[in-house]
Backbone:
């Protein structure tokens, strides 16, 4: 079934549940895509779709560049095989959408980045330049720098003296962390979005301090000639009871302004029973350590700040029901307040401390994989695979390209599942004698799931026996065999990641271009007209639609 650009535009403006997915790899997606398209690369579709599109009967629209490359058609067939029964293809693809006069965007996580610019514009969020912050440091001023990114990013590069206090943790921990009401609080991220949202979160929560966003974040710091710290490990402390109560009371005020509504256990149970008819996302917005101590059986770990920074990586269905879970309601409320402003109307919060009877699951969550029924795969264990490799078998690795670069089985070729035919053709042409002599091909991936899913496609092209390595590269290592990061062999261009730096462009030029791109998103939003971003006046909260 095809859908025209005009029909899709009307769907995007409607209150009907739907999802729009772009099935190209991330690099071409980042160059040109529709604003609310969810990146769902064809090559990893089965690994991502269960969390992004939890209801199989939801209307799905698929797009690629022009339809000519066949990705959309292949994706439609695969979705039908997986049990998704309401699938349409954007007629003429993104090219036809653009020719119809509608807006397209570059970059990734664009709705979230655009929302950050909208908030700064509407709220006039205070900010300080890198030079101003450096001067405060040099003067010995009473300041506190809070980094709103996940710890891995903070540890890689941070503002000197900064503490990690990612996303929704800001309000939860600030009342314990800020030494006095006179302390100036400065929130930073890598660029702009999380700095703006983080600073405005503290302002909305009524923190009595002067609060600022670090203008342009770590990028602005570097472009001003200052060196970031590396290897920092400082965390904003977990709040004491009295400070946790202060944060909770602040969140109550935020809930009143933005009309954040809680959900009862009875209502949640009803929503869970209705999830075949209405999509439901249950997102636990606490830290990963807290999540693994105990979480709801159907909850996905989704740190509050990242849900706002990269909403399209967690919520793949527009107009869906969303339940945000934490311990006492603070972090869930702050996250919900932002989702409501982004236009996600059907958001509720659940505090587990208020519901001690909740049944929780302990330990990490195993990400669900959607597989075709009766999938039969010829697997091979690592020791048997090693013997075959020693006999001349070729290894084809479907891991994400950064993982392949980090470590792969010696001699392995990087291949893209979405370009498997081109990958095999390239190997046959560039390593003709090895390919012809190879008694078999062995397909692998990070932990083997993708290799199993891609085996049938490879088998139709290989002309020789093909096996999937059971457990993938992880099992190979666990069997005592080595991975290497040398001898990298790419059968096709690794377009499976976002390359935000053009060849030959300096890091500084790339940073300036990125920051200019973020700021210019407001201009595009003005032309677009399809966003639902809302400004909630402090004294007149908008009503949250009932379901």
Residues:
């Amino acid at each position: 079934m095809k859908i025209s650009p005009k029909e899709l535009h009307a769907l995007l403006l409607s209150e009907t549940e739907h999802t729009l997915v772009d099935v190209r790899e991330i690099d071409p997606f980042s160059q040109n895509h529709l604003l609310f398209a969810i990146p769902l690369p064809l090559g990893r579709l089965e690994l991502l779709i269960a969390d992004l599109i939890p209801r199989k009967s939801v209307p799905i629209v698929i797009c690629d560049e022009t339809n000519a490359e066949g990705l959309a058609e292949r994706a439609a067939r695969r979705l039908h095989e997986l049990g998704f029964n309401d699938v349409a293809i954007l007629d003429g693809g993104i090219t036809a959408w653009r020719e119809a006069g509608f807006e397209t965007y570059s970059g990734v996580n664009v709705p979230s980045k655009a929302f950050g610019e909208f908030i700064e514009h509407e709220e006039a969020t205070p900010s300080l330049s890198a030079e101003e912050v450096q001067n405060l440091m040099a003067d010995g001023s009473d300041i506190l720098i809070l980094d709103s990114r996940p710890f891995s990013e903070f540890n890689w590069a941070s503002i000197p003296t900064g503490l990690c206090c990612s996303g929704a943790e800001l309000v939860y921990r600030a009342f314990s962390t800020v030494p006095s009401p006179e302390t100036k609080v400065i929130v930073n991220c890598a660029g702009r979005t999380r700095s703006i949202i983080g600073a405005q979160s503290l302002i909305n929560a009524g923190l009595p301090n002067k609060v600022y966003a670090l203008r342009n974040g770590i990028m602005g710091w570097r472009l001003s000639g200052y060196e970031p710290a590396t290897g920092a490990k400082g965390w904003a402390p977990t709040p004491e009871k009295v400070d946790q109560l202060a944060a909770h009371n602040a969140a109550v005020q935020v809930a009143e302004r933005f009309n954040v509504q809680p959900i009862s256990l009875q209502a949640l149970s009803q929503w869970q029973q209705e999830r075949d008819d209405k999509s439901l996302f249950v997102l636990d917005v606490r830290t990963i350590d807290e999540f693994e101590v105990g979480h709801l059986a159907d909850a996905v770990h989704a740190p509050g700040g990242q849900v706002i920074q990269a909403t399209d990586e967690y919520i793949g269905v527009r107009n869906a029901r969303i339940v945000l879970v934490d311990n006492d309601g603070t972090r869930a409320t702050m996250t919900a307040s932002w989702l409501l402003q982004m236009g996600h109307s059907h958001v509720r919060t659940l505090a587990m401390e208020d519901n001690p009877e909740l049944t929780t699951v302990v330990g990490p969550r195993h990400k669900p994989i959607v597989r075709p029924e009766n999938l039969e795969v010829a697997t091979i264990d690592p020791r048997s695979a090693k013997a075959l490799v020693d006999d001349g078998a070729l290894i084809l690795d479907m891991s994400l390209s950064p993982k392949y670069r980090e470590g792969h089985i010696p001699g392995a070729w990087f291949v893209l599942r979405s370009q498997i035919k081109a990958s095999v053709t390239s190997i046959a042409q560039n390593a003709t004698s090895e390919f012809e002599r190879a008694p078999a091909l062995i397909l692998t991936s990070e932990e083997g799931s993708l290799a199993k899913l891609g085996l049938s496609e490879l088998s139709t092209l290989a002309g020789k026996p093909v096996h999937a390595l059971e457990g993938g590269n992880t099992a190979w290592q666990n069997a005592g065999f080595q991975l290497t990061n040398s001898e990298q062999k790419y059968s096709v261009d690794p377009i499976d990641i976002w390359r935000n730096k053009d060849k030959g462009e300096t890091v500084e030029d790339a940073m300036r271009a990125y920051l200019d791109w973020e700021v210019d998103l407001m201009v595009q939003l003005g032309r677009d007209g399809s966003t639902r971003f809302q400004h909630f006046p402090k004294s007149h909260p908008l009503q949250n639609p009932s379901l």
Notes: The first strand starts at residue 2 and ends at 3. Residues 540-547 have pLDDT under 50 and may be disordered.
